[in-house]
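To the structural biology subgroup,

Please find below the input and predicted structure for ORF6N domain-containing protein, which we are adding to the shared reference set this quarter. The sequence is reproduced verbatim from the submission form. If anyone notices a discrepancy with their own records, reply to this email rather than editing the shared folder directly, so we keep one authoritative version.
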Amino acid sequence: MANEIHQYTIPDEIILNQIYYLRGHKIMLDTDLAELYEVETKQLKRQVRRNIERFPEDFMFELTDIEYGSLRSQIGTLKRGEHSKYLPMAFTEQGVAMLSSVLNSRRAISVNIQIIRIFTKLRQMFIDNTDLRLEIEKIKTKLDNHDKNMEIVFQYLDELVQKKEEPKIRKRIGYKSDDI
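Predicted structure (tokenized):
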């Protein structure tokens, strides 16, 4: 079975290019998943509808016309006749995991494992990125404070230089002589 799973391996880049961000979720479309699983989109949708109780709204939702139009512009022009007249289903990470329970082919299972691993990598990259951003913000705050402190130091130095340059008018002591 390990050899069979290995033979179904798809390059990560292909899967990554089929993950979109919509409604605050990373999602994959039914057409892309059907292609990866090597099943017809209508078969995938049929299995989901037969098991709809397994797919709550945070696992799977149908796109609106506006969302579909937006995704079409991101993906590029879709060829006439190759796509369903119905709005696509969008599957979140949990929905993709649930698909393995309704699609029983070996390919579906192995591709699902790969997709879930990619979602996990994406989440880890996001966490790492967030940690990096927090560190950068800390450094920025320190630098802002440092800049303010340096500005104060330079103001004091400017004041000292001005005081030194101003000639002090001193009162003369002694005899006044006009001859000199």
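Summary notes: Helices lie at 2-7, 12-16, 30-37, 41-50, 65-75, 93-102, 106-165. The chain has one domain: 2-131.

Regards,
Lab coordination
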